[in-house]
Design a protein that fits this description.
The chain has 315 residues and is mainly alpha-helical. It has 11 helices and 2 strands. About 9% of the residues have low confidence.
Length: 315
Amino acid sequence: MKLLLKKAVQQNKKLFVKFFVSLGVSLALVIGCCVMSISVSAANNVGGETAPVETGGDTAGGGSIDPDDVTFNGDHSALYDLIGIDASEPIQVFLLITFLSLAPSLLIMLTSFTRIIIVLSFLRNAMQTQTTPPNMILTGIALFLTIFIMWPVLAEINEEAYVPYANGEIDTVEALDRAGRPLKDFMLKQTTNSNMRFFLEIQDITIYSEESLGTDNPQAVNIDEINLQNYQDQLGFQVVVPAFIVSELTRAFQMGFMLFIPFLIIDLVVSSTLMSMGMMMLPPAMISLPFKILLFVLVDGWQMLIGTLITSFNL
């Protein structure tokens, strides 16, 4: 048993090291935040800096103070004033750190990034250029194209949610609700009705017509015959997000199939030509690669591909 355990540790040494390093960093962050929150809480409760006490009535003349009328006007922590999270509650800080660690992945999956990066990867595989362009270049292109496509949505979120929240006009909950509406509207525009119906059936959710909603006899609508954006109040993120992701994957693979066709034709022509010439040992990919690059450059492939990607989104 010890030998098997030792062999397993040796084979997965890098994996174990990464796991323990990530675990140590996470624990250090949690402990640091807890210590900081405790320090802030202790600083707020120092004897010389206690919050003033207000009473509901006049205490002059030796009158007693009613405990129910005592109100503490202590200031909240800076973290609470900023995002509504109390720094003196370790569990809230821990949940905040967890959310921030998942935020990049969530934002990538809820935007146009998924379709763009998959199509660009299909292009590189179809041309058989190995690692050219590199992954960093493809990711950068996809990121800036995502910003370009999502700019109207981001501008609406800034105007409707962030600016009023920064000015103190709305609270955190209402700001999140306002920010979610433009994002949900964007996702519903890209989501097919068949994918939405699939997840609605799994969750056993029924969509009712707007006219009958709230009445004694609400009428269910046919999901295949409606415009999803008009029913976003009845569609929660728990069904919108997976339906959007599946729709994005489907469209990305469809575009990838169309990308492969012209390069596949070049491969077939080169392979048949080499075979007819008896050059069996010469790799066809070595001969077809320059022709693929030449074709892509002559048709202005990058502008055509990026233009097709942008126009494929329903904005």
